[in-house]
Amino acid sequence: MSGGAPTPRPFAKAAREALKDVQLRRNLAKATGTIREKRAAVTGEMPDWQALRGAGQAIKTEVMANLDAYLEQLEASVQARGGIVHWARDAAEANALVRDIVVGEGASEVVKVKSITTDEIGLNDALARVGVTAIETDLAELIVQLAHEPSSHILVPAIHKNRAQIRALFLDAMGLEPGELSDDPSELTAAARRFLRERFFRARVAVSGANFAVAETGSVCVVESEGNGRMCTTLPQTLVTVMGIEKVVPDWRAMEVFLQLLPRSSTAERMNPYTSIWSGVTPGDGPQTFHLILLDNGRTRVLADETGRQTLHCIRCSACLNVCPVYARVGGHAYGSVYPGPIGSILTPQLQDSKEADTLPFASTLCGACYEACPVKIDIPRVLLHLRGRAVQKRRARPGGWASGEDAVMRAAAYVLAEPRRYRLLQRLGRGGQGVLARDGVIAWLPGTFGRWSHTRDLPALPRQTFQEWWEQRGPGERTAEEGA
Amino acid sequence: MRISLFVPCFVDTLFPSAAKAMVEVLERLGHDLDMPPGQTCCGQIHVNSGYRSEAAGLARHFVDVFRGSDVVVAPSASCVGLVHDVYPDLARESGDAALVGDVTGLLPRVHEFSQFLADEQGVDDVGAYFPHRVTLHTSCHSIRVLKVGDAPQRLLAGVKGIEVVPLPHADECCGFGGTFAVKNAETSEAMLSSKIANVLSTGAEIVVAADNSCLMNIGGALSRQRAGVRTLHLAEVLASTEARPWSRGSGPA
Questions:
Q1: Which of A273, A430, B94, B193 has its CA 20 to 30 A from that of A239?
Q2: Any bridge partners for residue A208, and if so which?
Q3: How far does the CA of residue A149 sit from the closest CA of chain B (Å)?
């Protein structure tokens, strides 16, 4: 929540609202369409792309199997190079750690980069409660912060805003007169740059996320495009990095794989403009105090789930968002979480335990475009199905959970389909009963929940004969060719 | 070759003409067919909605029905995809070692119609004649779960008289997704409206696919909009010959 907390809502309801926003639909279609094509080009030119994906998957699988050991190795390496390592079980612990560091430094303002993990824990709000202003320095995150909105995309948080909307926000936030700023993208960028530079130069503390941390050498890595990350990680005297425990990688050979996979999948670039890497502190150069906060916040629970644990392989590239036909229409806010799109649909319900989050695994047609695009081969459709199963089990465990209409229909369907005679009886009943609904071979109106199908779609009427009936009537060994049509 | 037909429940009930067409093509190619009795549903509805233990029961029924079959062929990439992709998980979760063994043994014998013809049998020309302008929707489960590749395209290319117009964004989902179309009806409609726009842009008379599920969705909207474009399963195109060409039968257009 660079600029406000996402509101948890059932997905279908939130999506219904989002679909009405014509501007959003246009912006999303254009932005995701463009990046989709570019990504296809820069991954297609790599002769070993599939092998790289396999390597990425293998490294992450191995890391998850030995996560405890790698984290302790990382801790030791960071400490050996003068950094301070903290462990946070949950959001409250992580926020308290950051708050105490910032307050201890006497800072009333912090600059931030790579903020999705700190959005997950609600750090900005926690800092605001002790009078500390957190300033997002990524252009798009600054935009959504000024709009008091949550991000709507992992990589391009302001994908839902166009330049006229951004100009209006800047005029207001920067105290400019309408004549002083046009909606020309280069003017808008220059205005943001002036606004941010002042804050970079006066900041005493920066807070960052991390793309990777190398256990072998205790090196933390931030990958970005605008140089704001470089500013944050070099100018202030104190740097605090909040990192999910799953971001650790063993060594620099692993980095070779991920630094190829990430930019091409994410911004569709061969290499991103800025890759900042620091190992502890360097006397006389850059931050002189470095804190690394290792955040769990539900991740060990995800790790314990055999099918779900691959969710932790995610390198936050957002390729799955850009190829997802659902995301491309409803945008990020409909997911009610800092993690939108297909990856959010499997990550959010594993990190949060709520009815709203449990609607997310159903926010997919299981088309598989996400799995195909994922640079570390997370089998998102399989995890979605697994989490749908878990959502049903959770509902059944609640009082009256078995009494839901859907549950009754599904149990009845299982009863009918378990026995061929019942199945065929139901077919005959359906054929007999459709008389009131079927006209000219189609059913244009269906009752109850099924009406949500027939609102815009016809359904074919049940033909006079099922295939099985036809086959039996035709007799054994009777060839089509001999039938004469 | 002796082939067992797997006719999924919604094909049996709503689209029997697709299964009849599959029979016609396979017999024309000289295969002996049987229809193992007792077929109901592979469990897709239950898996899709999260009712996995119920689905495991249907998986058990499925392996019993096809236990004696050497080769199983179905006109649905979606249902065959489920058998290949999800049955092993269901069997493992059920804790039933016999089911795990049965599923492992049965999987290599279950094929989707177009992949069976073009890849397993290496047949591109099935002797079909279909003098119409068509466009092909490459269903998600055919290309991304079963990885049928261009099997449907190759089969269509072998059809005499046909004009195949490329469908823009053919590989993008039509918005069906089983219960998704009801649970998230509005999002489904938004996706479907793009698919329909792409279909109409081709000027085709007929949208073809290897899955009746997508075709039910696409055809449902085309019918409601009186778009003058109809849907047809790939098998129905391939069943049409010069001697007995396909003709517009009943059913939604």
A1: A273
A2: A113, A241
A3: 23
**Residue span of the structural domain in which B204 resides:** 124-239
Query: For residue A41, what are the CA distances in angstroms to A62, A264, A265, A304, A317?
Result: 30, 9, 10, 37, 16
Give the CATH number of the domain where residue B153 resides.
Answer: 3.40.50.11810
On whether both B50 and B36 belong to a single domain, the answer is yes
Q: What is the pLDDT of residue A101?
A: 98
Report which of B49, B46, B69, B71 is spatially closest to residue B57, judged by C-alpha positions: B46
Residue A436 has pLDDT above 90, yes or no: no
Chain A's closest residue to B246, CA to CA, is A485
Q: Are residues B40 and B57 in the same domain?
A: yes
Q: Count the neighbouring beta carbons within 10 Å of the beta carbon of residue A444.
A: 16
**A-B Cβ pairs (cutoff 8 Å, strict):** 201
Residues in Cβ contact with B2 at an 8 Å cutoff, skipping those fewer than 6 apart: B31, B32, B33, B34, B70, B71
Return the closest-CA partner of residue B235 out of B87, B70, B79, B116. B116
> What is the reported pLDDT for A401?
84
- Give the C-alpha separation, B69 to B3, whole Å: 7
Select from A300, A333, A359 the last residue of a domain: A300
pLDDT of A481 higher than 80: no
**Joined tokens for residue A418:** 């378990």
Here the CATH number for the domain that contains residue A275 is 3.40.50.10420
A392 and B51: CB-CB below 8 Å? yes
**b/e code A418-431 from CB counts within 10 Å (16+ = b):** bebeebbebbeeeb
Average pLDDT over residues A406-432: 95
Taking contacts as CB-CB distances below 8 angstroms, the residues of chain A near B47 are 385
Cβ proximity of A110 and A135 under 8 Å: yes
How many Å apart are CA A318 and CA A224, to the nearest integer? 14
In a mutational test of the B interface, the residue from A367, A384, A431 whose CB has the highest number of chain B CBs within 10 Å is A367
Nearest beta carbon to residue B182 from set A364, A392, A452: A452
CA distance A296 to A93: 10
Supply the Cα-derived Rg of chain A in whole angstroms: 27
> In this predicted structure, what is the pLDDT of residue A483?
46
